[in-house]
Amino acid sequence: MSKVKTNMLRAINDVSSVDEMNQVIELISFKQKSLRHEAQLRIKSSVRAGDKVRVSGSKANGIGQIVEVKRTKAIVVINSERWNVPLTLIEKV
Question: Which ranges of the chain would DSSP assign to H, the alpha helix?
Fold first, then answer.
């Protein structure tokens, strides 16, 4: 186990009440949302309409072309089908 994980485990084990645990969960949730938002911004700034991308989703899967980039999703054409794909599932080819 890494040093960071060991330190986190120690900190969690020091939690002594349900209220403190709820605060820890809230902080973790906030950090998770922040990391997801950063990933979306990074992807959104690197792709444009017309770019070839790889989509790794459960329904839409494969290589396609972006038609339009929206706030959190992009319309991607894969095998003549249009898919509304979250930016976090897109990787530029």
Answer: 3-13, 18-46
Contact of 74 with 68, CB cutoff 8 Å: yes
pTM of the model: 0.70
pLDDT in tens, the chain (93 residues): 789 999 989 989 999 999 999 999 999 999 999 999 999 999 999 999 999 999 998 888 899 999 999 999 999 999 999 999 999 999 999
- What is the rounded CA–CA span in Å between residue 46 and residue 51? 10
Tell the CATH topology of 3-92: SH3 type barrels. (2.30.30)
Alpha carbons within 13 A on the beta-carbon side of 35 = 6
